[in-house]
Amino acid sequence: MTELKINKMPTPTWSWLKMDYAKLSIEDNLFTSMENMLPAVRGLTDAIEYREDGLEEEEKLPELTSGLNNKGGQIFEESLPLSIRVKKGQKIEKPLVLEYDLTSQNAVSTTQVIRAEENSELTVIILTSSEKGSAGFNTLRTQIYAEAYSKVHVIKVQLLGEKFLQIDESESRCAEGAHIEVSHVILGAGKTYLGVGNDLAEYKSTFKSRLSYFCKNDQELDLNYIVLHHGKKSECQMNVSGTLKDSAKKTYRGTIDFKNGCAGSVGEEQEEALLLSEKVVNNSIPIILCDEEDVSGEHGATIGRLGEDVLFYMQNRGIDSKAAENLIARAKVQSTVDFIDDEEVLSKTELFMDSIFGEL
Length: 360
Description:
The chain is mostly beta strands and 360 residues long. It has helices at 308-315, 321-337, 343-357, and strands spanning 2-6, 22-26, 35-36, 40-42, 48-51, 82-86, 96-101, 107-116, 121-129, 135-146, 151-159, 163-174, 179-186, 191-200, 206-215, 220-229, 235-244, 249-258, 265-275, 281-290, 295-304. The strands form 3 sheets. Strands 3, 5, 6, 8, 10, 12, 14, 16, 18 and 20 form a 10-stranded mixed β-sheet that branches.
């Protein structure tokens, strides 16, 4: 077995907390035996250059900020990326949808490189799904380059079977005036390791992330978000919201790093976690690092159980405690699901939610 250290924080905390990184044991040679998988695609237009045979050899792209922090890169080294480029000045109204059905797959690598040229706009929805009882291993890597004054929104929806393990990386870089959003809906898989990194590299670049999750039984969700502020007057906002039930476990690491020279920058991270069992484990480490005086950084967390006043309110309206828990847990996920502007992906997500929460 090979042991990996992933989702490593930029700066260590107290070692006794054992939260500076995640340990993951993988069978030897698993990564080299993985198969590349291409998605079913909807929404292509003439304004989008789409290639499934990897990047051209002469293309040299800037290094990106990694949330997964997998030194050595063995997780994705065998992966052949598909390339998505939005042409200069093009604003694509409908989302580009990439669907990966992993039902009959064992070990699969999926990678996308998304590039938005100057003053262009694009939304990409990436769905990974399988039948409920399916088992397997998936690596999902998305690299996002936003050139000056462009806008990119990547929405990742994960509806994998309960015996899946997924490693999900979203790396990105914002040029001057560019805006990147990364949204996640995490509902499936037995174990999910998710890293999100962004470099606000230039003046007035902005980054926003949101993640909604529901974990039950023995599901594990391990998160690491890292945002670097290099550009002046750059802004970031990170939000994580979800519910833990039964013996589920979640770890959230969130780092906002104000670099020297990023004067006038603003960063904020917020977390909400609803705990529905005495056995759940919830770890949260929000961190703000600062090497610049003229900045504003905030972080906050709301973690706890449903209050008696909420349950009393619900019960007075004929909603028992179990239904109340499901209603509120579903609402937390719905806040991100509402951004899915594709009927097929939305329908599959809502059916999956019905199987978890029941039809409310």
